[in-house]
Design a protein that fits this description.
globular, 3 domains, five-stranded antiparallel β-sheet, Phosphorylase Kinase, domain 1, single chain, Leucine-rich repeat, LRR (right-handed beta-alpha superhelix), 413 residues, alpha/beta, eight-stranded parallel β-sheet
Length: 413
């Protein structure tokens, strides 16, 4: 763990990454001594409310995180940092985003879970922006000039107060991943759909299988025989809090509306009690594994893979065929997944696929026909990116095959 004491003593001289979490109320000016080397600065989980103008001296700084601080205004000093690309101020108390606060080289902006009611016009002038995370604010509208963000690929605007679908986003040429649930324009009446409601007391939760932004997934069994339900089950208990993608309740409803498909995680039952919201699902067999890894700071919006990972073109083709079937099924239900990625896909050694994680999903049946068509087109771009990412790890000897050529051609259609 890096400490302010170590920084002051000179023991951290020349480092490129610094993380300080010591209940700080003021920016430690000693950080400026790292101006010749510092590229990543994490000041999350402190009590900071401002950053000094001198931060512009950190000329190599590319990434700055300051989540879980009581900032009420995004510091204007950020806009003076010459090489700052990634800015993350999640879960602050930010109400005001000044015009001058956004760096010229901004590529990835995270303002999730704040109190922002208005965004500056300068946001639409940051032409390098690829990723925009705005879920959980109080935005009633977005700047009209966001239509200029021709490099924007991923946007999260769920859980705001938007009264109209932001059409300035829907026509963007590179937008591939969008989440917009939990706004007045996208409000839907929640249904139970086709799965029964059960009491949480009927479920015996066993070991934790995984944990995400919206909840904890555990292996489980029924306390009493449930003769008409699947016996090998897992349960996702939602945290009931805002996530980077939106509200967990919207995630559950979108998953239920998507319904049954052989390549989707299968919902079995739901729990909707005052103190617990949970989704019971069919247990995924142990031999399934994650197809990819989440994007890195460098790849920004594109998946990464385990070093040395490779797939035959036969497996890639089989996986793509299944994902195309899932795509068609979801949009027949008017559900936009919003997170169509390899890292949300599980596969086995035979190329069989299971797709899940509806955290960014949005229902779009309330939109007009043109908007619905644009949503489908946006997610079709995500499907093309998915194919491209898989082809990037295709074994070398298969890259001259007809199957490879056919899939590569499909990406440019």
């Amino acid at each position: 763990m890096q400490t302010l004491c170590a920084l002051r003593s000179g023991h951290l001289a020349g480092i490129s990454e610094l993380a300080l979490s010591e209940d700080l109320t003021d920016f430690p000016m000693e950080i400026l001594s790292l101006a010749d080397s510092l590229e990543v600065l994490d000041l999350s989980n402190n009590r900071l409310t401002s950053l000094p103008d001198e931060i512009k001296q950190l000329t190599k700084l590319r990434i700055l995180f300051a989540s879980n601080n009581p900032f009420e205004t995004l510091p204007e000093s950020l806009g003076k940092c010459p090489n700052l690309e990634i800015v993350g101020f999640k879960a602050n108390k930010i109400k005001h985003v000044p015009e001058a606060s956004l760096p010229q080289k901004l590529r990835w902006l995270i303002l999730t879970d704040n109190k922002i009611t208005r965004l500056p016009q300068s946001l639409g002038e940051r032409c390098l922006l690829q990723k925009l995370m705005l879920a959980g604010n109080q935005l009633a509208e977005l700047p009209s000039n966001l239509s200029q963000l021709t490099n924007l690929e991923l946007v999260r605007i769920s859980a705001n107060k938007l009264t109209q679908c932001p059409e300035q986003l829907l026509g963007l040429p590179k937008l591939a991943w969008i989440a917009f649930s939990g706004n007045p324009f996208s409000q839907v009446q929640h249904h139970t759909y086709s799965v029964p409601q059960v009491a949480f007391s009927s479920i015996d939760v066993k070991n934790v299988l995984g944990q995400g932004a919206s909840g904890v997934i555990s292996k489980a069994t029924w306390r009493e025989p449930q003769l008409e339900l699947i016996q090998d089950i897992a349960v996702k208990v939602f945290k009931g809090e805002l996530t980077s993608d939106g509200y967990p309740e919207d995630e559950m409803q979108a998953c239920l509306k998507a319904g049954a498909h052989p390549n989707l995680v299968q919902p079995v039952a739901q729990v909707t009690e005052d103190d617990c919201t949970a989704l019971v699902m069919a247990l995924i067999p142990k031999h399934f594994r994650n197809l990819g890894l989440p994007p890195s700071f460098e790849s920004c919006t594109r998946d990464t893979f385990v070093e040395g990972e490779s797939l035959s073109i036969a497996h890639i083709s089989k996986i793509v065929e299944q994902m195309e079937s899932v795509f068609a099924h979801l949009h027949s239900k008017q559900v936009c997944h919003g997170d169509l990625y390899a890292h949300n896909t599980l596969v086995d050694d035979d190329g069989n696929m299971i797709f899940g994680d509806f955290g960014a999903a949005s229902m779009y049946h309330m939109l007009n026909k043109k908007q619905q068509a644009q949503i489908i087109q946006i997610e079709r771009r995500a499907l093309r990116c998915f194919i491209e990412d898989l082809l990037s790890v295709c074994v070398a000897e298969d890259k001259s095959s007809q199957q490879y050529t056919e899939l590569a051609n499909r990406m440019v259609k």
